[in-house]
Write a structure and sequence with these properties.
By secondary structure, this protein is mainly alpha-helical. Helix content is 67%, strand content 9%.
């Protein structure tokens, strides 16, 4: 027996995710332009690298917006479970963009170290640009992380991690500029390499989270689901509990053992109550598939 209830706020959730991404996109573009422009004018490799990192943040936002646009499509004959996994595919694309950014930044830093690099002009404006953009990055991270948690959005959480890595990179760049100011020009290229490592770490984190969804990793601990199911009067036992899907849209299926004398109608009503209880306890659950079995001692 199956029971299916679609969350009425599914489209609203994705609409909110889309609005958050648009806000973050414009902020990331402003930060990227400020860093790269002044990095180019001053000859700072680490500032240019950080600007490229921020630019890839913006490209990632565009990819995420495309993924959300596809994910918001309703279920159809070809995709009976909907299109929610396209949010995870967008996260994979963001991870790949980060890998490309790391390659670009890292090769540039190595080239400057080998060749001896160029002169870097460090002025109070350099520090003002970096501190100002750092503040924007931290604000964006907090905003996006809170929205990702509230909306159960993988893309927002991945992008928040990306933006936070940008903030950490900015701290490193500021440190590099300080060393250049003190008379150690090689520090700028060294910090560009630190930027590369930070980008790589973020890329692997984003890819790991996305692949967790695409590989159908369990989304909700089995014991937590079992506790809710067994709290429903009429359920003698439950097994074969499974979950999969995205953070925002989880699909669950399970087997219920009930009194063998229970009528089909009573068993159906019990399945509905179990589904309602699960969706009340775990709002991210989109659909529950319930299989009824008689508790007659058989093992299946």
């Amino acid at each position: 027996m199956s029971a299916m209830l679609v969350k009425p706020d599914s489209s609203n959730r994705l609409g909110e995710v889309r609005r958050v991404l648009w806000v973050v996109l414009f902020l990331n573009l402003a930060v990227a332009v400020a860093k790269f422009a002044w990095g180019t004018l001053s000859g700072s490799a680490s500032m240019q690298a950080d600007g490229i990192h921020s630019a890839f943040d913006s490209v990632g936002n565009v990819v995420a917006l495309f993924g959300i646009a596809v994910a918001s499509r309703p279920a159809d004959a070809g995709h009976p479970y909907g299109h929610s996994k396209f949010e995870a595919y967008a996260s994979v694309a963001i991870g790949c963009l980060l890998l490309a950014a790391a390659l670009s930044v890292g090769s540039s830093a190595v080239s400057r170290l080998v060749s001896g690099g160029g002169a870097v002009e460090v002025t109070p404006v350099s520090f003002a640009v970096m501190v100002g953009t750092l503040g924007v990055n931290l604000a964006v991270t907090a905003y996006e992380r809170a929205a990702g948690k509230r909306l159960h959005s993988e893309v927002l959480r991945a992008d928040a991690a990306h933006t936070f890595s940008d903030a950490l990179v900015s701290v490193g760049v500021i440190a590099g500029l300080a060393f250049v100011w003190l008379g150690f020009p090689v520090a700028d290229s060294v910090m560009a390499l630190v930027v590369t490592v930070a980008i790589l770490a973020t890329a692997f984190s984003v890819l790991r989270q996305a692949l967790s969804t695409l590989s159908d990793h369990a989304r909700i601990p089995r014991d937590e689901l079992e506790a809710v199911v067994l709290s429903c009067p009429g359920v003698r036992h439950t097994h074969k509990i499974r979950t999969r899907g995205t953070e925002g849209e989880v699909y669950a299926d399970l087997h219920l053992l009930v009194d063998p004398a229970m009528t089909v109608q009573d068993a159906h009503n019990l399945g509905d109550r179990v589904e309602a209880a699960l969706k009340e306890s775990f709002p991210q659950i989109e659909e529950v598939l319930v299989h009824i079995e008689p508790d007659d001692g058989h093992k299946d």
